Amino acid sequence: MDCIFCKIVNGEIPSSKVYEDDKVYAFNDINPQSDRHILVIPKEHICCANRIDETNSSLVAHIFEVIPKIAAQEGLEFYRIINNCGEKAGQTVMHLHFHILSGENLGERLV
Ligand code: 5GP
Ligand code: ZN
């Protein structure tokens, strides 16, 4: 499958790893939008939030268990979690991912 995040998971494309376990991979965004910008993805290919269902939602629950661990590991006291679902919402990589944004330059605006 021609998916850049699957290629990152299997090491075909290099990345700056932040966290990894058997189900989840997290790495620094190549084009950070804040002081710290980390992407958290399931290793399994799920195209977007619209494809979360009862067969794979435990993976998403696991991601949200991992996020506080990443925050503690990276010393992030505050952060924003973002998911873009669909091209018109700004999703450019069709592999489910959650952005963790942190840093003093975080604004209050959601959009
Ligand atoms: P989206 O716009 O789909 O919500 O977010 C995709 C994110 O993936 C963007 O923030 C973009 O900078 C990041 N990204 C795209 N290609 C790569 C890559 O090859 N390596 C890394 N580390 N990040 C990438
Ligand atoms: Zn993928």
Provide the fold topology.
Blueprint: H1 4-9, E1 17-20, E2 24-28, E3 36-42, H2 57-74, E4 80-82, E5 98-102
Antiparallel strand pairs: 1-2, 2-3, 3-5, 4-5
**What would the principal axes of the Cα set say about the shape?**
globular
Rg estimate, integer Å:
13 Å
What's the overall average pLDDT, rounded?
Answer: 96
Helix content: 10-25%
Say what oligomer this is.
Answer: single chain
What features would you describe in this structure?
The chain has 111 residues and is of the alpha+beta class. It is 22% helix and 22% strand. It is built from two helices and five strands, in the order αβββαββ. The protein has helices at residues 4-9, 57-74; strands spanning 17-20, 24-28, 36-42, 80-82, 98-102. A five-stranded antiparallel beta sheet has the order 1-2-3-5-4, covered by helices on one side. The model has no long low-confidence stretch (mean pLDDT 96). The structure holds guanosine-5'-monophosphate (5GP) and zinc ion (ZN). Residues 4, 13, 15, 27-31, 39, 84, 90-93 line the site of guanosine-5'-monophosphate. Residues 3, 5-6, 45, 95 line the site of zinc ion.
